[in-house]
Amino acid sequence: MPSLRAPVSWLRDHIDVAVTPDEIAERLHMAGIEVDHIERTGMWGDKVHVGRIAALEKHPNADKLQLATVEYGDGRKKTVVTGAFNVAVGDVVPYAETGAELIDGHTGERAVLRPKPMRGIVSEGMVLSAKELGLGDDHEGILVLDKGLRVGALLRDVLGETIIQLEIAPNRPDALSILGVAREASAILATPLRQPPFEPLSYRLDPALLTVRIEDPEACPRFAAAYLTDVRIGPSPAWMQERLRAAGMRPIDSVVDVTNYVMLEVGQPLHAYDADRLRGRALVARLARHNETLRTLDGVDRILRSSDLVIADEERALGLAGIMGGEDSEIRATTATIALECASFEPRRIRRTTDAHGLQGSSGSAAARRFGLDLSPDMVPMALARAVHLLREHTGARVVGATDVYPRPRHVPNVRLRFSDIERVLGAEIGREEAADALRRLGFAHAELGDQLVVTPPAIRTDIAIPEDIIEEVARIVGYDRIPVRVPTGVLPLHERHPLELLRERVRDALVGFGLQETISYALIDPSWLGRLTPDGAAIAPEPLAITNPTSPAQSVLRPTLRASLLDTASRNLRHRRGVAIFEIDPVYLARPGDLPEERWTIGLLVAGQAEPVRESESWLTAERDWDWHDILGLARGLADAVDLGPFDDQTRRPAPGLHPGRSYAVSHRGRVAFTIGQLDPRVAEEWEVPASTFIAEIDLAALLDVRRRPEAATPPRFPAAWRDLAFIVDEATAWEDVRADMEAAGQKAGLEAIALRDVYRGPQAGAGKKSFAVRLTFRSPTGTLSDADVDKAIGRIEGRLRHRFGATVRTS
Amino acid sequence: MATTVDRLSELATKAEAEIAAAPDEAAVEALRVRYVGRRDGEITKAMRELPTLPATERPAYGAAANAARVRIEAALERRTAALREASLARDLSAGAVDLTLPPRRVRVGRYHPITRTIREISRIFAGMGFEAVEGPEVEWDYYAFEALNIPADHPARDKFSTLWVNAEGTMQVALEATGGGRMRAASARPDRILLRPHTSPMQIRVMEQRRPPVRVIVPGRCYRFEATDATHESVFFQYEGLAIDEQLTMADLKGVLYSFARQLFGGERKVRFRPDYFPFTEPSAEIAFDCFVCDGGGTTDAGKCRTCGGSGWIEAAGCGMVHPDALRRVGYDPSKYQGFAFGGGVERLAMLLTGTADIRLFQQNDLRYLESV
Fold first, then answer.
1. B344 has pLDDT over 50
2. Cβ of B234 and A472 within 8 Å?
3. Which label site among A111, A335, A522, B337 has the fewest CB atoms less than 10 Å from its CB?
4. What is the pTM of this model?
């Protein structure tokens, strides 16, 4: 937001109110003129005085130093050593006695002034720069004060200042000035506003001296100028310099200072040209010509775009209109005749030109920041007259003439509303008289016709267009605290069901219940991460969406996978702990040509390093062990059980790039990968500095929703179960799942209810290249108690199947 | 005769003494057999003598024998109970564990504080009839700005330093309202794609899809081109509220946020409204709650209140009445419908609720931090 430093003494030039600066700030803030903070300058204590240079002489031992004798009242006189040469006898300057607390001009730190010999002479105190007083950055010379100040006074009494740092909303350029803030304060505090002194100009100007022409009235709706002669360029008066400094600007010379001063005071930027350098004695607002060039005041040669508005003379561009002047037509020390421009520009073009030439923000100009807002052309005549007044007063200038080109005056809207609308919108009762008074204080004209109200805002208020704007103005002035607190009534809308979000939250609950820590990491990642997810750098996810203007390379693409984020989190945490167990549920972003990307909600799980004991090193009850494949599989299966999932439609186990080839797989659902699980490829683990025992699962939330099933209520069985233990030896290559499926098929009809794997044994008793499975089979019939004979028959069939299909050697225990 | 009776009583007394001295249950059992055993117990034997006695002596003798047996059996019971109790006490005391040892640890998972805060926000607003909905993080310029009265080159765009996606697309835009306020995709047009700098685009998306009354709360991730520091993040979360009905006012807005503050922070919170500027609300306001740490006083025992920075107020959200132009754009008749919108930062609330001092902690995922909140 545009900011403004408002010295309270300057505000008090325009309003008389017997309230403290803090209260002014509070009232402004509560009426919508945001106060960022309040600064106080001049907390200098009682050792810093207004002094006068009574004598100056050369330092006997140093060419770059001189001795200044300073008087500071009551006959007090001290001699100080100074390196500055910008002072003369009779100048009024700030003088600090030994022991004063100041800001060190070199370090910027607060420091107490101590006597220190300089080239053999001890300085009795010091004459001060602006920087040493905390009044600005200038440390080149001594701050020369207004000669009207009483010598011997404490500096804090004559220069102490409270500055209210304001943030002005971008729709309120009318308030982006001292006068604008004073105008607000006058409305809020119901006190009259005092305009700065100026004499209205008569718009007569001999075209032989200066002509003003607008070629594009859209881009430049109004262009006024004054022609002044006999200008003496020199320093501006000390009070003006102090105010500029207090408001955050650097004094330059009398003419530039006046334009800046008026900009700060009234809110309207101006620009002064050396009139003798204008070819054809003209100022023209026109669009730049093809390939036209301009060296702007910052010394940069710019190639202008044909959409850039320039101020030109009859031959060449003189400056980027409203943004930055050109070097060529700049005011110089020898300038005696000036053409003073005071114009209005279309804010969007200003903003586009500002952006295109990289002049936004701090590299740009205070004028451009103002012209980028919807500044009213109505400010022009007063600003020009005020500047002319100050130039006449402080540079001896003579105004020869002025002109004002304003082909299509801007329409000021009449806003119609009803008094009852105020309550309709605010829910607060504001009396008619009170509302009318608020409008009057703001300078809004209004007419009443029964309940009807027609309001005409002042022309400078370009933000007012609709009844709600008027209602806000009234509310602002009577105070938002007048709005009561009420509980809404009315019909409650029907709510929709959000299955994906509901499932997502159930998943979160389940995973937290499993003991995993939830993480949320940056959705913007470093693209180089994506090349580190497989040993050969091949991508595991589609090309990420890139950010055009990233804040840093580390956050320059939208992540197409959660894996890199999980690995980064694990890696950083494993530097200070031995195990992690984390999950994240967030979208991954997948480009769709010509459309917004798909934001695919994904569940990512990662366990790595030590699994037990749960509390690091606390192994008195639990042996230390690392996470393993069975853990990650258990978490995934547990999640499936917790949220009632059925199978994906394609059970084919496919390779999972980036994971351990023999300890991972991916499965698809509806033609896209829905579930990836496994141990991280050891080479990738090394790359990310995570342990080999790092296990990952990635699950597409939408696929889970698709395979989710409604739980079926089970009736507890009425008849007892029978069980048998069975052990059999098969080839090492035989997969458990195949064995299990065959046992299930063979036992199904006989009432095989459950198969529990009790042991997998490899060793001499199984034989080389073999393994033994020990299982417990549970049988149950829904219609009666099974007899031993029934169960034996079923076991026989199962054993037969195992022998036949897997060549198993079976032994019943 | 009396001597016989006395003898029985003495026998009982002797038995009582022996029983009381029995060291264990086996000794008690031996004494039971010896005195009241069915076969050879002293009392049993004494009873067997009964028929041999003269008829006149029998009742007294029988009564004495019975009394002796009752005494002995009672003594046996007492001693057995005492021995069992003693043995149980011995067992229990032998089985005592060191109660101060650490437990068999359970793995405790925790929600991320952002999740917890979003759930809390959604829960509170659900209680006031607001439905939680979500929308895209990657958005069209139209929804993020234009439909919210922030056309290209509008100065308000400066507030939303936007991250742009290196892609363009064709948006199906709902340009015109049809009768009854329902929207229809009227045309397709190319538009720029960005990362939403606020959750407010969902105001438009929701209104395009629903008819009043509307009450929604929209939590979600947002992005800004922003230098990060202790209180600023380039990726962050917001919550957005929107309510449209026939007669909702700023007083209702104040009421809803007041209720929210009370439920979130507890106690009798005060709310403060001050004017603010957003192009898509008019009038607009910034809402602050009085600080729940210093109760609005600005100071605590430790000096200046660190939660509110000494101001006594915690600025929590921007809000206002939905701008008539925004209503019109989605086909709502502003002369019939009006309502309010609000939006605030999730992290800000999470920081206040958890005492988190640096916003960057949320997405850095240092488990030492996450396990503490």
1. yes
2. no
3. A111
4. 0.85
